[in-house]
Design brief:
binds pyridoxal-5'-phosphate, Aspartate Aminotransferase, domain 2, Aspartate Aminotransferase, domain 1, alpha/beta
């Protein structure tokens, strides 16, 4: 049996049937129905956030959060707004900025957590900058305090891409409470999923109506359309899947921690391998297990290890490679070089990590890497 980098968690089918039974009776399949509302309430409790709007996926959640915060308009007023973001992410982050007619300005990352380097942000701020969009990469929490100070000093909004950080806390505070808004993704491949799905967490109640309207064609009332919205509603069946998975999330994360701990035990201290240490004061979700290969010290490159695993039917991923500013569609907008992000993208591998991955398989993966 091949081993893939991830495997979707599946709740009990009986539980799913129980959750969708009322949908068959009510015939309310979508448009923010009762299952959506139940899911929303459960998530607000779990994430410990005051406001939450659910979306059909994380990408649309981020795209519409950027719009709901008025950044598109602010950008137009500035004659082309700029958003400081990281090139070390899934390309969705950057697309969400660009598709709002805003220009991504790439800030380099730091080696310690692969998140945006706060020392590099201020030099990128111009009179066109309207926001900062950092990413909690691999579930590593960004330096939220320094980012907030910089944003406050320069009057910028902060929207976090929290696609990797579901359920995490920093100093006991749910990660969705930082910045002006945080996007979560509930895609099938993530720690927590609703097949497809996503959310925006926020605390300023004023964003609630625009977020709600943007995902529903800009419809304000039966006879009024207030904005040029799209369609990004989460339907009742996906919400039901989310409910079922949310009931088991703690169990999923416990299982991931066992995998994480075993990888750590086997691979830490090996010359030329850099692992992500657990951050202080953070409750982690163990979303990914990235390994940085220092070719010189380890003797083999990331690509060598990728190929050796693949030969044994084990599919790791070069996540994130290439860095976004090395991609065809962003090369012209790349701006200043980001040497750390480029280097990390060339040398990092995420190895299989999912709930239920057998310890024998983790050992086999470690054996191949070490040999
Ligand atoms: C998965 C992911 C997204 C997009 O989320 P979808 O729910 O797949 O649309 C955005 N950013 C990052 C960092 C992601 O990992």
């Amino acid at each position: 049996m091949p081993i893939f980098v991830t495997r979707s968690s599946m709740p009990d089918i009986e539980d799913y049937i129980k959750e969708i039974q009322p949908i068959f009776e009510s015939r309310i399949l979508t448009n923010m129905g009762p299952v959506y509302k139940k899911f929303q309430g459960m998530l607000m409790d779990y994430l410990n956030v005051p406001e939450l709007s659910l979306f059909v996926n994380g990408h649309m959640a981020l795209e519409m959060a950027i719009q709901a915060l008025g950044l598109k308009q602010r950008g137009e007023e500035a004659g082309g707004g700029e958003v400081i973001t990281t090139p070390y992410t899934f390309v969705s982050t950057t697309h969400a900025i660009s598709r709002n007619n805003l220009k991504p300005v790439f800030c380099d990352i730091r080696m310690s957590d692969y998140c945006m380097d706060p020392d590099r942000i201020e030099e990128l701020i111009t009179d066109k900058t309207v926001a900062i969009v950092p990413v909690h990469v691999y579930g590593n929490i960004c330096d939220v305090n320094r980012i907030e100070n910089i944003a406050r000093k320069h009057g910028l909004k902060v929207i976090y891409d929290g696609a990797h950080a579901f359920g995490e806390t920093y100093h006991g505070i749910g990660v969705g409470n930082f910045g002006d808004a945080t996007m979560f993704s509930f895609h099938a491949t993530k720690v927590f999923h609703s097949i497809e799905g996503g959310a925006v967490a926020f605390h300023d109640k004023r964003y609630g109506v625009p977020l709600h309207e943007l995902k529903n064609f800009g419809i304000h009332g039966a006879e009024e359309v207030s904005a040029i919205g799209g369609n990004a509603k989460l339907d009742e069946f996906r919400a039901a899947m989310g409910i079922c998975n949310l009931k088991r999330i703690d169990e999923y994360i416990r299982s991931r921690k066992q995998v994480h701990d075993r990888y750590f035990e086997r691979l830490s201290g090996v010359d030329g391998l850099i692992l992500c240490p657990e951050q202080k004061d953070v409750i982690h979700n163990y979303a990914y297990f990235p390994i940085y290969f220092d070719r010189e010290k380890f003797g083999k490159s990331r690509d060598d290890v990728f190929a050796a695993l693949r030969e044994k039917d084990i599919y790791s991923r070069k996540y994130f490679y290439p860095a976004v500013n090395d991609m065809e569609c962003y090369r012209d907008a790349a701006g200043k070089a980001t040497p750390v992000a480029h280097d990390v993208s060339m040398n990092i591998l995420t190895v299989p990590m999912y709930e239920g991955l057998a310890m024998e398989d983790v050992d086999r993966i470690c054996d191949i890497i070490l040999s």
